[in-house]
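Are you able to produce any protein sequence you like plus the matching backbone structure tokens because I've never seen that pairing?
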Amino acid sequence: MIIEISRSVLHAIALTNILFAVIFWALALLCLRVFFEVLARTFFSKNIPVPFAYIPSQIPHPNPPGSAVPFEIPLVEATDVQIHRFMHFRQHGKAWSKEDGLGIVAMTAAAYKGELYEERLSKWIDDHFRKRLPKLRYPYVAPHWNSWSSFWAETGPQVRRMCIASMVLIVEHLMTGLVLPALYLYSGEVVYFEMSMYGEIGYQIVSIALIIASYVLKRDVTIEQMHSAVWPLLLIHHVSTVFLCALGLGLGDLCPRKEVCGFLFSLLGLTSTLHYVGQILDFSPCSQANAPYVRLTNHLIALVSMVWFRCIYWFKIAYFAIDRAAEIGGYATAIPVGLVLLLFTAFNADFIKFHVKATIGCWKKTIIPEEKLTTKEK
């Protein structure tokens, strides 16, 4: 009788902790998103200086896969006819006059440049994740005209949301995948380990709920703000993560907490964080077009980390997890754990494949002169 009551109390405590974690992340994610949006509008949204701006000579501007085709006409050298034609195209028939000034033309051109990149990026994601087409040309962003000061003005609305999402995810990954596990390893206090586990479960539940809501509402309300072709992969990933975290908590003191912290470090705290940092760099003035060696350095660090932690070290983690699960719960525990880890292995393989291709592409564009690159490499 006492044992049953104890189990009921522990079960109630676990559910309460999960509920608290869900509420915490639902509020924290909203606050983080608002914070980063305000930050971006405050520091990255200055007007484009007219001498830095360009307008296209062709309307509409060519937008092939791969590298961006730069606008050709410096705004300060553009004729009234060229400006009128461009503004008529962008303002859907509305006339532009000299009294309006060139500042609005510069901002309109920046917005158009951002939309063209967003169009290429969206198509690449759809072709890669949904259609699974081979030998795609990665969409490189055009050079930014005014560095970080006008970064937001040169970025399309969907890419802005993806940037904000990456910043939010970096915070979450660092908290549950690095800070809390490190505190546990340093202090030995189990509360930090449990906070990491419950925190990750709460975040994943919120993320799952928002993906389902996106399907129901037929619009993107996900945390990741990725193309809908990616949603099924994210859903499988999040459900698998909840299973592993719940298992870690359910095992209690039998759980190999030190090794689980290594699992969190490798997948969340380091490699996933580097991936999202790279995504921000791809969109930003630290992209390949503006700062090729910065981008290449990030690619190399991310790739080495991916190969070590998601390939070489990963098999050690997976073997240990299945072996320990079999030791504790027999085949009934080991088989589900093995299946979930198999899914993670497939995710890891896709992650590594992407970073290998991205690093090679960035290396070629950085080291090899543009005129020597083939059409497929540009």
In short: The radius of gyration is 24 Å.
